[in-house]
Automatic annotation (TrEMBL):
GO annotation, biological process: proteolysis
The protein, known as: Dipeptidase
Signal peptide: none
Bias type Basic and acidic residues, positions: 1-12
Gene3D superfamilies: Metal-dependent hydrolases
Organism: Streptomyces davaonensis (strain DSM 101723 / JCM 4913 / KCC S-0913 / 768)
Organism lineage: Bacteria, Bacillati, Actinomycetota, Actinomycetes, Kitasatosporales
Protein backbone atom coordinates (compact mmCIF):
# COMPACT_ATOMS: atom_id res chain seq x y z
CA UNK A 1 0.00 0.00 0.00
CA UNK A 2 2.89 2.27 0.77
CA UNK A 3 4.29 1.58 -2.65
CA UNK A 4 1.03 2.64 -4.22
CA UNK A 5 0.98 5.86 -2.28
CA UNK A 6 4.54 6.59 -3.30
CA UNK A 7 3.41 6.48 -6.93
CA UNK A 8 0.68 9.04 -6.31
CA UNK A 9 1.42 12.74 -6.50
CA UNK A 10 1.55 14.60 -3.25
CA UNK A 11 -0.76 17.61 -2.80
CA UNK A 12 2.19 19.92 -3.33
CA UNK A 13 3.01 18.22 -6.59
CA UNK A 14 -0.61 18.48 -7.70
CA UNK A 15 -0.61 22.17 -6.91
CA UNK A 16 2.49 22.56 -9.04
CA UNK A 17 0.85 20.81 -11.94
CA UNK A 18 -2.20 23.06 -11.66
CA UNK A 19 -0.01 26.04 -12.46
CA UNK A 20 1.00 24.70 -15.87
CA UNK A 21 -0.99 25.69 -18.98
CA UNK A 22 -3.34 23.08 -20.35
CA UNK A 23 -2.76 21.77 -23.89
CA UNK A 24 -5.25 23.07 -26.51
CA UNK A 25 -7.23 20.06 -27.78
CA UNK A 26 -7.79 21.91 -31.12
CA UNK A 27 -4.49 23.64 -31.83
CA UNK A 28 -4.46 26.33 -34.53
CA UNK A 29 -1.78 25.78 -37.15
CA UNK A 30 0.46 28.83 -37.65
CA UNK A 31 -0.11 30.54 -40.99
CA UNK A 32 2.03 29.11 -43.74
CA UNK A 33 4.76 31.38 -45.01
CA UNK A 34 4.33 32.37 -48.68
CA UNK A 35 6.45 30.30 -51.00
CA UNK A 36 7.68 31.99 -54.17
CA UNK A 37 6.50 30.25 -57.36
CA UNK A 38 9.73 29.05 -58.94
CA UNK A 39 8.22 29.38 -62.43
CA UNK A 40 5.38 31.95 -62.55
CA UNK A 41 3.32 32.09 -65.73
CA UNK A 42 3.84 35.31 -67.70
CA UNK A 43 0.71 35.82 -69.85
CA UNK A 44 2.55 38.08 -72.29
CA UNK A 45 5.33 35.55 -72.80
CA UNK A 46 2.77 32.76 -73.14
CA UNK A 47 0.87 34.69 -75.83
CA UNK A 48 4.11 35.41 -77.67
CA UNK A 49 4.92 31.70 -77.76
CA UNK A 50 1.41 30.94 -79.00
CA UNK A 51 1.89 33.59 -81.70
CA UNK A 52 5.13 32.02 -82.88
CA UNK A 53 3.54 28.57 -82.98
CA UNK A 54 0.59 29.88 -84.97
CA UNK A 55 2.86 31.68 -87.44
CA UNK A 56 4.90 28.54 -87.91
CA UNK A 57 1.73 26.95 -89.29
CA UNK A 58 0.29 30.06 -90.96
CA UNK A 59 3.15 32.39 -91.96
CA UNK A 60 2.80 36.01 -92.97
CA UNK A 61 2.18 37.05 -96.56
CA UNK A 62 3.58 40.59 -96.46
CA UNK A 63 1.77 42.81 -98.95
CA UNK A 64 4.37 45.51 -99.53
CA UNK A 65 8.16 45.75 -99.25
CA UNK A 66 10.38 48.57 -100.47
CA UNK A 67 13.48 46.38 -100.44
CA UNK A 68 14.33 46.69 -104.18
CA UNK A 69 14.75 50.46 -104.10
CA UNK A 70 16.56 50.35 -100.73
CA UNK A 71 19.13 47.90 -102.08
CA UNK A 72 19.95 50.16 -105.04
CA UNK A 73 21.87 52.48 -102.73
CA UNK A 74 24.03 49.80 -101.10
CA UNK A 75 27.44 49.05 -102.62
CA UNK A 76 27.40 45.56 -101.09
CA UNK A 77 24.94 43.47 -99.11
CA UNK A 78 24.31 39.90 -98.00
CA UNK A 79 20.70 39.18 -97.12
CA UNK A 80 21.49 35.59 -96.20
CA UNK A 81 23.87 36.46 -93.37
CA UNK A 82 21.92 39.59 -92.38
CA UNK A 83 22.01 43.20 -93.48
CA UNK A 84 21.68 45.97 -90.89
CA UNK A 85 21.32 48.70 -93.53
CA UNK A 86 17.79 47.51 -94.41
CA UNK A 87 14.72 46.33 -92.49
CA UNK A 88 14.44 43.02 -94.34
CA UNK A 89 16.86 40.12 -94.68
CA UNK A 90 16.58 36.33 -94.63
CA UNK A 91 17.26 35.83 -90.89
CA UNK A 92 14.61 38.39 -89.96
CA UNK A 93 12.14 36.95 -92.46
CA UNK A 94 12.58 33.59 -90.76
CA UNK A 95 12.35 35.07 -87.27
CA UNK A 96 9.17 36.90 -88.25
CA UNK A 97 7.75 33.80 -90.00
CA UNK A 98 7.30 35.63 -93.32
CA UNK A 99 6.37 33.09 -95.97
CA UNK A 100 5.65 35.44 -98.87
CA UNK A 101 6.76 38.96 -99.74
CA UNK A 102 5.38 41.35 -102.35
CA UNK A 103 8.33 43.44 -103.54
CA UNK A 104 7.28 46.91 -104.66
CA UNK A 105 8.51 48.20 -108.02
CA UNK A 106 7.15 51.67 -107.33
CA UNK A 107 9.20 54.65 -108.50
CA UNK A 108 10.36 57.63 -106.45
CA UNK A 109 8.49 60.90 -106.80
CA UNK A 110 9.93 63.28 -109.34
CA UNK A 111 11.23 60.62 -111.71
CA UNK A 112 10.77 61.71 -115.31
CA UNK A 113 7.82 60.05 -117.01
CA UNK A 114 9.95 58.83 -119.89
CA UNK A 115 12.10 56.91 -117.39
CA UNK A 116 9.20 54.97 -115.85
CA UNK A 117 9.42 51.89 -118.05
CA UNK A 118 13.20 51.60 -117.84
CA UNK A 119 13.30 52.24 -114.09
CA UNK A 120 10.64 49.59 -113.46
CA UNK A 121 12.54 47.06 -115.56
CA UNK A 122 15.74 47.89 -113.67
CA UNK A 123 14.02 47.22 -110.33
CA UNK A 124 12.49 44.03 -111.64
CA UNK A 125 15.91 42.88 -112.83
CA UNK A 126 17.39 43.77 -109.44
CA UNK A 127 14.83 41.66 -107.56
CA UNK A 128 15.48 38.68 -109.79
CA UNK A 129 19.24 39.13 -109.26
CA UNK A 130 18.79 39.30 -105.48
CA UNK A 131 16.69 36.12 -105.49
CA UNK A 132 19.27 34.29 -107.60
CA UNK A 133 22.02 35.38 -105.18
CA UNK A 134 20.12 34.05 -102.12
CA UNK A 135 18.68 30.70 -103.23
CA UNK A 136 18.66 29.25 -99.72
CA UNK A 137 16.30 31.91 -98.43
CA UNK A 138 14.33 33.37 -101.35
CA UNK A 139 12.43 32.00 -104.33
CA UNK A 140 10.60 33.82 -107.12
CA UNK A 141 6.90 32.91 -107.26
CA UNK A 142 4.26 33.77 -109.86
CA UNK A 143 1.29 31.66 -108.76
CA UNK A 144 -0.41 30.55 -105.56
CA UNK A 145 0.97 27.06 -106.10
CA UNK A 146 4.52 28.33 -106.41
CA UNK A 147 4.09 30.30 -103.18
CA UNK A 148 3.14 27.06 -101.40
CA UNK A 149 6.08 25.22 -103.00
CA UNK A 150 8.51 27.88 -101.78
CA UNK A 151 7.13 27.65 -98.25
CA UNK A 152 7.38 23.84 -98.26
CA UNK A 153 11.05 24.19 -99.25
CA UNK A 154 11.76 26.61 -96.40
CA UNK A 155 12.09 29.67 -98.64
CA UNK A 156 10.24 32.96 -98.60
CA UNK A 157 8.27 33.36 -101.82
CA UNK A 158 8.92 36.70 -103.55
CA UNK A 159 6.17 38.12 -105.77
CA UNK A 160 6.90 41.04 -108.08
CA UNK A 161 4.77 44.11 -107.58
CA UNK A 162 3.02 46.34 -107.10
CA UNK A 163 4.42 48.42 -109.94
CA UNK A 164 3.25 51.89 -110.87
CA UNK A 165 0.76 52.20 -113.73
CA UNK A 166 3.09 54.70 -115.40
CA UNK A 167 5.35 51.73 -116.18
CA UNK A 168 2.90 50.67 -118.90
CA UNK A 169 3.44 53.86 -120.90
CA UNK A 170 -0.22 53.47 -121.97
CA UNK A 171 0.60 50.20 -123.72
CA UNK A 172 -1.06 46.84 -123.07
CA UNK A 173 1.85 45.15 -124.86
CA UNK A 174 4.20 46.44 -122.14
CA UNK A 175 1.78 45.06 -119.52
CA UNK A 176 2.13 41.63 -121.14
CA UNK A 177 5.93 41.89 -121.25
CA UNK A 178 6.07 42.85 -117.56
CA UNK A 179 3.78 39.95 -116.72
CA UNK A 180 6.01 37.55 -118.66
CA UNK A 181 8.91 38.73 -116.47
CA UNK A 182 6.93 37.99 -113.32
CA UNK A 183 4.87 41.10 -112.53
CA UNK A 184 1.91 40.16 -110.34
CA UNK A 185 0.45 43.47 -109.03
CA UNK A 186 -0.13 46.88 -110.67
CA UNK A 187 -1.22 50.07 -108.88
CA UNK A 188 -4.02 51.89 -110.71
CA UNK A 189 -3.15 55.52 -110.00
CA UNK A 190 -1.17 58.41 -111.42
CA UNK A 191 -2.07 58.14 -115.10
CA UNK A 192 -4.51 59.82 -117.46
CA UNK A 193 -6.64 56.67 -117.54
CA UNK A 194 -6.64 56.12 -113.74
CA UNK A 195 -6.96 59.56 -112.17
CA UNK A 196 -9.10 61.55 -109.75
CA UNK A 197 -11.89 61.31 -112.31
CA UNK A 198 -11.79 57.51 -112.21
CA UNK A 199 -11.06 54.90 -114.85
CA UNK A 200 -11.50 55.84 -118.50
CA UNK A 201 -12.56 53.36 -121.17
CA UNK A 202 -8.91 52.52 -121.75
CA UNK A 203 -8.46 52.09 -118.00
CA UNK A 204 -11.27 49.55 -117.94
CA UNK A 205 -9.59 47.73 -120.82
CA UNK A 206 -6.37 47.64 -118.79
CA UNK A 207 -8.28 45.99 -115.94
CA UNK A 208 -9.78 43.39 -118.30
CA UNK A 209 -6.35 42.56 -119.70
CA UNK A 210 -4.95 42.32 -116.17
CA UNK A 211 -7.70 39.82 -115.34
CA UNK A 212 -6.79 37.82 -118.44
CA UNK A 213 -3.14 37.70 -117.42
CA UNK A 214 -3.64 37.21 -113.68
CA UNK A 215 -2.15 40.59 -112.68
CA UNK A 216 -3.85 41.91 -109.54
CA UNK A 217 -5.06 45.50 -109.26
CA UNK A 218 -3.71 47.53 -106.34
CA UNK A 219 -5.99 50.44 -105.37
CA UNK A 220 -4.00 52.00 -102.52
CA UNK A 221 -3.58 55.68 -103.31
CA UNK A 222 -6.21 55.61 -106.06
CA UNK A 223 -9.12 58.04 -106.09
CA UNK A 224 -12.47 56.94 -104.71
CA UNK A 225 -13.90 57.04 -108.24
CA UNK A 226 -11.13 54.75 -109.49
CA UNK A 227 -11.63 52.36 -106.57
CA UNK A 228 -15.35 52.04 -107.23
CA UNK A 229 -14.95 51.62 -110.99
CA UNK A 230 -12.19 49.05 -110.59
CA UNK A 231 -14.32 47.07 -108.12
CA UNK A 232 -17.10 47.00 -110.69
CA UNK A 233 -14.86 46.20 -113.69
CA UNK A 234 -12.56 43.55 -112.22
CA UNK A 235 -13.56 39.90 -112.33
CA UNK A 236 -10.94 39.05 -109.72
CA UNK A 237 -10.51 40.40 -106.19
CA UNK A 238 -8.48 43.60 -105.89
CA UNK A 239 -5.86 44.56 -103.32
CA UNK A 240 -5.22 47.66 -101.30
CA UNK A 241 -1.61 46.89 -100.48
CA UNK A 242 -1.09 49.66 -97.91
CA UNK A 243 -4.40 51.03 -96.63
CA UNK A 244 -5.75 51.26 -93.09
CA UNK A 245 -8.99 52.72 -91.67
CA UNK A 246 -9.57 56.41 -92.30
CA UNK A 247 -12.11 56.46 -89.47
CA UNK A 248 -9.21 55.94 -87.05
CA UNK A 249 -6.52 57.95 -88.82
CA UNK A 250 -7.28 60.44 -91.64
CA UNK A 251 -4.42 59.54 -93.96
CA UNK A 252 -5.22 59.96 -97.69
CA UNK A 253 -4.20 56.37 -98.47
CA UNK A 254 -6.51 54.98 -95.78
CA UNK A 255 -10.02 53.92 -96.75
CA UNK A 256 -13.32 55.33 -95.45
CA UNK A 257 -15.83 52.85 -94.07
CA UNK A 258 -18.08 52.92 -97.14
CA UNK A 259 -15.20 51.87 -99.40
CA UNK A 260 -14.09 49.25 -96.89
CA UNK A 261 -17.59 47.80 -96.98
CA UNK A 262 -17.60 47.78 -100.79
CA UNK A 263 -14.17 46.16 -100.82
CA UNK A 264 -15.43 43.47 -98.46
CA UNK A 265 -18.52 42.85 -100.58
CA UNK A 266 -16.27 42.35 -103.62
CA UNK A 267 -14.04 39.91 -101.66
CA UNK A 268 -11.07 42.25 -102.05
CA UNK A 269 -8.26 42.55 -99.55
CA UNK A 270 -7.25 45.53 -97.39
CA UNK A 271 -3.64 45.05 -96.27
CA UNK A 272 -3.02 47.24 -93.22
CA UNK A 273 0.45 48.86 -93.22
CA UNK A 274 2.73 48.81 -90.20
CA UNK A 275 3.65 52.49 -90.40
CA UNK A 276 3.32 55.08 -87.66
CA UNK A 277 2.04 57.62 -90.19
CA UNK A 278 -0.92 55.54 -91.32
CA UNK A 279 -1.77 53.44 -88.27
CA UNK A 280 -0.15 55.08 -85.23
CA UNK A 281 2.92 54.84 -83.01
CA UNK A 282 2.20 51.58 -81.16
CA UNK A 283 1.41 47.96 -81.88
CA UNK A 284 -1.98 48.51 -80.23
CA UNK A 285 -2.76 51.23 -82.78
CA UNK A 286 -2.09 48.77 -85.59
CA UNK A 287 -4.32 46.22 -83.87
CA UNK A 288 -7.08 48.86 -83.60
CA UNK A 289 -7.01 49.28 -87.39
CA UNK A 290 -7.08 45.52 -87.93
CA UNK A 291 -10.07 45.25 -85.58
CA UNK A 292 -11.86 48.03 -87.45
CA UNK A 293 -11.20 46.70 -90.96
CA UNK A 294 -12.29 43.22 -89.87
CA UNK A 295 -15.50 44.61 -88.39
CA UNK A 296 -16.38 46.67 -91.49
CA UNK A 297 -15.05 44.57 -94.40
CA UNK A 298 -15.08 41.10 -92.87
CA UNK A 299 -12.57 38.56 -91.64
CA UNK A 300 -11.78 37.36 -95.16
CA UNK A 301 -10.85 40.84 -96.37
CA UNK A 302 -8.04 41.91 -94.05
CA UNK A 303 -4.31 41.32 -94.46
CA UNK A 304 -0.89 42.64 -93.43
CA UNK A 305 1.56 44.95 -95.14
CA UNK A 306 4.90 45.46 -93.44
CA UNK A 307 5.78 48.45 -95.64
CA UNK A 308 9.40 48.01 -94.56
CA UNK A 309 12.32 49.67 -96.34
CA UNK A 310 10.27 52.55 -97.69
CA UNK A 311 11.83 55.18 -95.44
CA UNK A 312 8.92 55.63 -93.01
CA UNK A 313 8.80 55.24 -89.23
CA UNK A 314 7.24 52.10 -87.78
CA UNK A 315 5.29 51.54 -84.56
CA UNK A 316 7.05 50.51 -81.38
CA UNK A 317 7.77 46.77 -81.21
CA UNK A 318 7.43 46.53 -85.01
CA UNK A 319 10.68 48.00 -86.36
CA UNK A 320 11.50 45.32 -88.93
CA UNK A 321 10.31 42.13 -90.61
CA UNK A 322 11.15 39.96 -87.58
CA UNK A 323 8.46 41.47 -85.36
CA UNK A 324 5.20 39.97 -86.62
CA UNK A 325 4.88 37.65 -83.57
CA UNK A 326 4.43 40.72 -81.34
CA UNK A 327 1.49 41.90 -83.44
CA UNK A 328 -0.13 38.46 -83.47
CA UNK A 329 0.35 38.22 -79.69
CA UNK A 330 -1.54 41.49 -79.27
CA UNK A 331 -4.38 40.16 -81.44
CA UNK A 332 -4.50 36.99 -79.35
CA UNK A 333 -4.87 39.19 -76.28
CA UNK A 334 -7.87 40.80 -77.96
CA UNK A 335 -9.56 37.47 -78.58
CA UNK A 336 -8.78 36.81 -82.25
CA UNK A 337 -9.25 33.12 -82.97
CA UNK A 338 -6.68 30.92 -84.67
CA UNK A 339 -8.95 30.74 -87.72
CA UNK A 340 -9.19 34.53 -87.97
CA UNK A 341 -5.45 34.90 -87.55
CA UNK A 342 -4.66 32.24 -90.14
CA UNK A 343 -6.78 34.14 -92.67
CA UNK A 344 -5.15 37.44 -91.73
CA UNK A 345 -1.57 36.25 -92.11
CA UNK A 346 -1.79 33.74 -94.96
CA UNK A 347 -5.19 32.45 -96.03
CA UNK A 348 -6.68 35.63 -97.49
CA UNK A 349 -3.70 36.30 -99.76
CA UNK A 350 -3.74 32.69 -100.92
CA UNK A 351 -7.45 32.99 -101.75
CA UNK A 352 -6.89 36.12 -103.85
CA UNK A 353 -3.95 34.59 -105.71
CA UNK A 354 -5.81 31.34 -106.42
CA UNK A 355 -8.88 33.21 -107.64
CA UNK A 356 -6.76 35.36 -109.97
CA UNK A 357 -4.96 32.27 -111.32
CA UNK A 358 -8.23 30.46 -111.98
CA UNK A 359 -9.89 33.50 -113.59
CA UNK A 360 -6.88 34.11 -115.84
CA UNK A 361 -6.80 30.52 -117.04
CA UNK A 362 -10.48 30.66 -117.94
CA UNK A 363 -10.22 34.10 -119.55
CA UNK A 364 -7.31 33.09 -121.78
CA UNK A 365 -9.52 30.42 -123.34
CA UNK A 366 -12.22 32.96 -124.18
CA UNK A 367 -10.33 36.16 -124.94
CA UNK A 368 -7.40 37.02 -127.18
CA UNK A 369 -4.74 39.52 -126.02
CA UNK A 370 -6.11 43.03 -126.27
CA UNK A 371 -4.70 45.30 -128.98
CA UNK A 372 -6.61 48.37 -127.79
CA UNK A 373 -4.78 51.71 -127.77
CA UNK A 374 -5.50 54.69 -125.61
CA UNK A 375 -6.02 56.87 -128.67
CA UNK A 376 -8.74 54.54 -129.92
CA UNK A 377 -10.73 54.48 -126.66
CA UNK A 378 -10.00 57.80 -124.97
CA UNK A 379 -9.05 59.96 -127.97
Amino acid sequence: MADLQDDLHTPAEVDALDGLPLADPFPVEPPALPIDDPDPVDPDAERLERARALLAAHPVADGYSGLPWALRHLPWYDLELGESAVDTDVPRLRQGHVGALFCSLHLPEGLAADRAVAATLEQLDLVRTVIAAHPEGLRLARTAGQVIDARNCGRAAVLLGPATAAALDDSLAILRVLHSLGLRVLTLAGTSWASEAGLTRFGEEVVREMNRLGVLADLSGASEQTVRRALAASKTPVLCTRSAARALRPHPANLPDDLLAELGAAKGLCMVPLTAEQTGPSVRDVADHLDHVRAVAGTQCVGLSGTYDVGTAHPQDLPDASCYPHLVAELLRRGWTETDLSLLTWGNVQRVLRTADFTAKAAQQRREPSTARIADLDG
